[in-house]
Amino acid sequence: MAISTLTREVFDINKLNLWYGDHHALKDIDFPINKKEVTAIIGPSGCGKSTFIKTLNLMINMVPNVKMTGEINFNGQNILSEKTDLVELRKHVGMVFQKGNPFPQSIYDNVAYGPRIHGMKRKVHLDEVVTKALMDVALWDEVKDRLHAPALGLSGGQQQRLCIARALATKPEVLLMDEPTSALDPISTLKIEELILELKEKYTIVIVTHNMQQASRVSDKTAFFLMGELIELDLTSTIFSLPKDSRTEDYISGRFG
Which keywords does the record carry (predicted)? Predict the structure, then answer.
């Protein structure tokens, strides 16, 4: 299935259910995601946050014995269709994981990896893409004189920004971030948060986080998950000041038992 970029909505999830074998991990999820907004997903461990975010580019399909029903409409097309081109989907919906995971290659080759996979071969074009992606994540000035040095030689915060640059190099529409700062020190965390606020001018971002302060700082909307259910989705300012569900209030205030 070719991915259209003409429709107005980015994601419109309807009655999404997911099972790991007999375990019902996501239950009747209805979840709209708007263009150029940051949506934070919060909730206790094991509530379905990471499972949900991995459905949005079907990385969840790599897990054995997964079954899904319902619809995940991306730009108006249900990606749960057997006709979905996973390579094309993941070009448009990039992923950044909890811990920076650079390939054991050079800084340059890490960023160029995606464009090469999608057929870009001319060095002049690759140079442009690599430079822009590294500039977009505020890493260019730090690495421009050692682009061909091993990426694994970068600090943890630099590695995470490199992985974001690698995701941006394919020019995605959506960037998924699964606890992208949980392994970082406070200074590196601040840099990533500042980067998220800059990137939302161009990209739609969905971020899973255990950090309530982070969710309140970077997101436009926040979703609270509990035991596989979407309890509440609203403007972040509303979720953190006037949540409609007492379970949301208990979780945010630390009274959740």
Answer: ATP-binding, Nucleotide-binding, Transport
C-alpha distances (whole Å) from 124 to each of 11, 129, 207, 222 are 34, 9, 33, 41
Give the pairing of strands 23-33 and 11-20: antiparallel
What is the distance, to the nearest Å, from the Cα of residue 59 to the centroid of all Cα atoms in its chain?
11
Q: Give me the DSSP letters along 226-242.
A: ETTEEEEEEEHHHHHHS
Which of 210, 217, 216, 215 is closest to 256 using CA atoms?
Answer: 210
Residue 83, token pair as written in the block: 């006709």
- Say how far apart CA 13 and CA 85 lie, in whole Å: 19
Q: Which of these, 31, 7, 9, lies nearest to 18 by C-alpha position?
A: 31
Q: Is 134 left (phi over 0), alpha (psi -120 to 50) or beta?
A: alpha
CATH topology of domain 11-252: Rossmann fold (3.40.50)
195-232 residue pLDDT tens: 999 999 999 999 999 999 999 999 999 999 999 999 99
Domain ranges of the chain: 11-252
pTM (two decimals): 0.90
3-state class (DSSP) for residue 221:
strand
Q: Alpha helix locations (H) across the chain?
A: 49-55, 86-92, 107-117, 123-136, 140-143, 156-168, 186-199, 212-218, 236-241, 246-252
On whether the CB atoms of residues 48 and 93 are closer than 8 A, the answer is no
